[in-house]
Every structure is written in structure tokens, then in C-alpha cells.
Automatic annotation (TrEMBL):
One of its GO terms (molecular function) is oxidoreductase activity, acting on paired donors, with incorporation or reduction of molecular oxygen. This is LLM class flavin-dependent oxidoreductase. Coiled coil: none annotated. InterPro entries: F420-G6PD/mer, Luciferase-like_dom, Luciferase-like_sf. The lineage of its organism: Bacteria, Bacillati, Actinomycetota, Actinomycetes, Streptosporangiales.
Amino acid sequence: MRITYGPWGETLGELVAAARAAEEAGAEALWVPELHRSATVAAAAVAQGTRRARIGTAITLAFTRSPMVTALEALDLDELSGGRFVLGLGSGVRRLNEDWHNVRWGSPVAHLRESVAAVRHIVAHAVDGAPMVLDGAHESLAVRGFRRPFPQARAEIPIYLAGLGPAMTRLAGQIGDGWISHELCSPEWLRERALPALEDGLGAAGREREALDVVVSAVCSLDPDPVVARGRAAGVAGFYASVRSYADFFAFHGLADDQAWTITALRSGAGADDLASAVSGRMVDALTVTGTAERVRDRLAAYEGVADTLKLTPPVYGLPAAETRAAQARLIELIRELT
């Protein structure tokens, strides 16, 4: 499995320093999310501070930008990184789109399919000046007389799709260059739910399994004291358990009651970043990778044979910066050992 990393930084400067350290330790790709920062701005910072590793967004929200803006940002990032950029796109959940960004939700699978087609079309034709015309239910395009007068690092930029539910995961198999799992993804979910959906999508499109990079995310917390390691990861599990849209995911792991308890804590006034105390130990054990370095290595080995790429990330939610910083330092050392 390829070892990749999602760096953290309290400042952009620290984010870049962590990315550089992970690259030097052997990480093949560096992934930046979109929630507290813009994914594309963070990717630009990381691209300028590194030399070899691929730079990916995990993920950029697809519906909050037009395909034209997404394509132009991807072209700029590919130029800035010297052809190292990977565009990771995802729909996000309905509440995030409608309440935070005031964009329509509609039919997310069909919408994302059209968004990807439009981005690829623009990347392919922005430099040659050909008319760019697409008729879509969600993303129409009618561009004439436009030519991007700048050098283009590559004719194509890989597009990875995030998906949790079966329909979105199937779409990744149909049209994606890669699939990015949810931040919480157990080996059992990968084998029993994600891979069958991906294989359905690949089969429907007549594609081979080798055409798709399966990227599994693993939140890792290492410490000589297993109790400390588990405690650092609890906030991550709580943050995602507060999202009702993920009910099927938690029920699959036998954690429906645990998720309900977390949602009750949220409704009682706890912030989404402050739910660690409402999270059961079994939820942390099922959905994150914690413990001593030896135990974490053993847990990661469970993804062998089913994932192509591991995306390791430190715990971030509900922790003081110093705690995340310590967790990150141990994780980068683990990357050095693994590679």
C-alpha cells in the first residue's frame, strides 16, 4: 500500500512544515481537507513548500464552486506543483450545502457526475480555444471565444471522488481516477460495503480494477499509553457521529445507540468539536486506529489487499493544539518506519 498523509497546522506555515516533514519521511501524497480552511488555498501553500509528493484535496466541495472555477483552480494548482496535483471532489452532506453555502442539493450523484464531466471538459479545452458547450440538468456550460493563455502542466488532471453511500461510491468506480473513503473507514466497511459498490461501478463502465486508486482514510493516534492514544481520537469519532446522515454507517458497525447518545449530547448544548466525553470506547476502537506504535502498525496491516493507498491523519477535533501537534509528530515518525 502507498502511504500518504493529511498534515495539520495551527497556522498555514505549520501546515506546510508538517507536509514537508511527512514528505521527507516518505509520504507519497499530501492531502488537505475543506472545512476550517479552503482546500485549494491550503493545497497551494503545500505545493510551494514541497518538491516530490503529490498534492491532493480530500476533499474539495464540488457544488459550492462552479465547474469553471474548480477547473481553473485545478489547472493553477497543477502548474504550481509541477504536475503533482490530484483533484479530490465530494458532495458533502445536504445541511452543509444548503445551510452553510446556500447552494441547492438536488440529486447529488447526478450533479457530481455532471460536475466531473464539466471540469474534465474545461481542463481539456481551455488551452485550445475550442467552444466548450455542455447541456446538463445540473451543470450546463456554454463558453465560446475563451482560451487560457498560460502553459498547462498536463492535458489531464486526475479526479478522485469521495463517497460513503453505495450510489456515490458506485459513481467513483464508474468515472473516478480514484476513490477517497470517509475519514472513518474500518476494514470491514471497506470490504463489505465500499469495494462491492466500487466493483459495480467499474463493471458498469467496463473498467478494470487497476484503473481505480482506492484510498482509505485512517485516523491514527499513537502513544506509549493506549488510554492517552484512545482519548485523543474520541473527538474525531464524536464529530462525525453527530451527523445524522451517517446513520447507516454507524449502524453497520453496531453503533446506532452510540451515535444516538452522541446526537443527544449535541442537542443538549455540546459543540460538535466537544463530544469526546459522549463517545464510547468501542466506537473509538471500531472506527479509528489507536494505541502504541506496534499496535497501530498491526491495525493498519488489516487494510492490506483491499486498499491501494492509506491516507493517515492525526486526530484534530476537540483537542488543544499541543495535543494534535504531539500526535502528528508521532504519526510522521511512523510514516518513516513504514516507508
